[in-house]
Amino acid sequence: MNHNFWFALVVGTTTVVNLAAADEPRAGIDWPQFRGIQADGISEGKPLPVEWNAAGRNVQWKTPIPGLAHSSAIVWRDRVFVTTAVPASGEKQLRVGLYGDGDSAGDVVEHAFKLYCLDKRNGTVRWERTAASRVPRFRRHTKATHANSTPATDGRHVIAFFGSEGMYCYDFEGNLKWSKDLGRLDVGPHNAPELQWGFASSPIIAQGRIIVQCDVKSSQFIAALDMKDGREIWRTRRNEVPSWCTPTAFQAGGGWQVLANGCRDIAAYDLTSGESIWRLSGGGGIPVPAPVVADNRIYLTSNHRPIRESDPSKPIFVVNVDARGRLKLPEEGESNKYIAWWKQQRGNYMQTPLIYRGVAYFCADNGMLSAFDAAGGEELFRERLSQAGTGFSASAVAGDGKVYFTGEEGDIHVLSAGRALKILAHNKMEEICMATPALSEGRLYFRSRDHVLCIGD
What we know:
This protein is mostly beta strands and 457 residues long. It has no helices and 35 strands. The strands form eight sheets. A seven-stranded mixed β-sheet has the order 1-2-16-17-18-19-23, with no helix packed on it. It has a four-stranded antiparallel β-sheet with strand order 3-35-34-33, with no helix packed on it. The chain has a four-stranded antiparallel β-sheet with strand order 4-5-6-7, with no helix packed on it. Strand 8 and strand 9 form a beta hairpin. It has a single domain, classed as 7 Propeller (Methylamine Dehydrogenase, Chain H), CATH 2.130.10. It starts with 8 loop residues before the first strand and ends with a strand. Residues 1-22 have low confidence and may be disordered. The protein is 0% helix and 38% strand.
C-alpha cells in the first residue's frame, strides 16, 4: 500500500503526526484537525493579535453558519471547513454556563447534517453539502449540539463525523467519496444511563488511517478505518465508561501509537495492529480532554469523580512516551520508570491541557487556571481567569508567545506565556463560543454560536 506521508514535526525525540495526504501540512498555515497539526493547540510563525472587538476591530471577516455545532473549524491552505446540524423546525436551544443539570434537549426533529467549505481569505462559502437529513438517533445535552465532532483533513479528503448519524468523506470539491454507519453511538453519564448527552469524540488522521474512539454505553471500542474507502482495518474493544475523548496519534522509538484517554482504560495502542502497548486506570468518571504529547511526555487529565473511592480525584497523569505494560502510580509527588509526575485535585473536566514553552496549563470549567512546570510538575501559579462565573469549555491554543482561553459567553482571555500569570487583554466576541479556535498565518478562526469569525491584526 503506497501512501504520501506527512512530514514529521519533531519535539525532542518525539514525533507527533497526523498523516497521509496529497501534500504535507505546513506548520503555521494548516490546522487539519482538532487542535492542529500536532494536536497540541500550537501554531507559530507569525504575530498573533492581542486585542479585538465584535464591533469590527481586527475582525477580518464574519460568516453566518446556520444550525448548532460545537465542532471546531479546521484549515488547509486557503480553505476553512466546519460542520453543523440544522433543525428543520423549532428554535436553536442552547444552555451554557456553570450548572450541574444532566437534562437532554428536546429538539427531536429532523436535522440536516452539513459540511461547509469557506474561503480563508474572505469567508465566502465555496460550497456546502448535506451529508444526511434525519431525526437524530439520540438526544443531546442542553449544553451540547448534534454536531460536536471536529472534522479532519489530509489535504485531499475531508472527514465529517456526526456520531450515530454517520461518517462522510468528501474531496476538496465537495464530492462525496464514501460514507459509513458506525452504529448506534449512545453516550451519557455512567451513573445515569437513562440520560443521553450526544457524541463528541473527533476523528483524527494518521498514516492514511482514520482513528475513531467510541467510548459509548455498551461495546466500547477504538478503531482504524482506511481513508480510501472507510474499510475497517482493526477494532479494539475497550473496558470503559462513556467518554467524549478525542484520540491522539504520535511516533516515538520508531513506532506509531494511538493514545486514548479514559477512566478505567487510559491506553496506548499500536497504530498498525490496534494491539495494546500500555494501560493505566484511575481517571475521572466522565473523561473529556484529549491526550497531549510534548517533549517525550504524554499529558492526561480528567476531573469528574472517580468510579472507585480509592482512585485519585481530579488527576493529572504525565506518562513517559516509552511506557509499556500495566502502569502503576507511585506516591503523589514521586516518579517511577514510566510516570514522570502526577497530581490530584488539579485536573480538567472539559478542556484539553496546553503545554507551551515549558509550562503546562490546566484550566477548569469555572476558569480556575493551574500552571505547572511541564517537566517536573512544580505548580507555578493558580488563578481564576474570570470572576463573573463564566464557564470554560473550549481548549486553550497558543502561538507567538500568547495563550488564548475562550469563555463560553465569548470572553477571550489573552495571556503572555510564562511562569507567572500575565493577562494581556480580555476581548468580547458578543456571542457564545464553545468551540476551540483554529490558528493559521497569524489569525484565529473562532466558531461561535452563529458564525465563523477570522480575527487578525
